Amino acid sequence: MTKDSPPLPLRHYPPCPNPDRAAMKLVGDRVRARLEADPLVQRLPAEHAEVWAVGDFLSGEECDRLIALIDGTAVPSQILDHGYNEVWRTSYSGDVDRNDSFVRMVERRIDDLIGLPHEWGETMQGQRYAPGQEFREHMDWFWTKAPYFKTEAKRGGQRTYTAMIYLNDVEEGGETAFLNLGLSIPPQRGVLLAWNNAGLDGSLNQFTLHAGTPVVKGTKYIVTKWYRTRTWGNA
Ligand SMILES: O=C(O)CCC(=O)C(=O)O
Ligand SMILES: [Fe+2]
User: Is 58 domain-assigned?
Assistant: First the structure.
């Protein structure tokens, strides 16, 4: 916390060390400059976090192609997320095939939009939520005191930016709710959301707590891509 940090929000994690803080500040500054200069990017109203949106980032046809890939790979989320129990993230998810040329094209478009190196991004993950399924409130940044962070520190460090694309409209429910910001975004086909998981000073921003609220009617499909502070993976 610095003198200028906002007060702690209502819901937050216990404080933890942030070894990647300087790198997170650099990423935040770099991405902010890029998104602010892009006329197609809109900053959403939130005081203590940077959340951006782009309409029609993907065409309907492109969304359908990703939906088909997700239907081909999705498994219950808890199989991928060792840290979550099954009530926390009840959707189905799966890493899409990074070597697929269409997936690569979409990933590169996201890289270009936010202006970070392709190598810093994790493989895009697809998610499918049926009625009643949800992703409860969480931070995308790693809690660095957790045992898994030892591994993550060696393969790219902290998560910086999140980019997420809604692949379809959902009849009811399935909003992305930023509970500490009073911001709730309904799924809209083709819309990309991106947010900085760090504060302006590179701190782990507790205001980015968010949830995928339960789908009430219909099915929700999204892809999510997380960027690290350096090359992701064992490279
Ligand atoms: O489903 C949503 O709207 C949110 C998904 C999410 O938070 C994530 O994938 O990290
Ligand atoms: Fe998330």
Answer: yes
- How far is the centre of ligand 2, averaged over its atoms, from the C-alpha of 214 (Å)? 14
Query: How close is the Cα of 7 to the center of ligand 2, in Å?
Result: 22
Number of domains observed in the structure of the chain:
1
Residue 15's pLDDT is 87
**ipTM entry:** 0.99
What's 33's domain CATH number? 2.60.120.620
Is there a domain that residue 33 lies in? yes
> Relative to the CA of 129, which ligand 1 atom is closest?
1
pLDDT digits (tens, 9 = 90+) for 44-67: 999 999 999 999 999 999 999 999
Q: Which residues of 26-44 are buried (b: 16+ CB within 10 A; e: fewer)?
A: ebbeebbeebeeeeebeee
Query: What's this model's pTM, rounded to 2 decimal places?
Result: 0.93
CA distance 97 to 124: 9
- Looking at ligand 1, which residue's alpha carbon is closest to its atom 9? 224
Ligand 1 within 6 A of 225 CB?
no
* Coil, strand or helix at 128: strand
User: Is 3 within the bounds of a domain?
Assistant: no
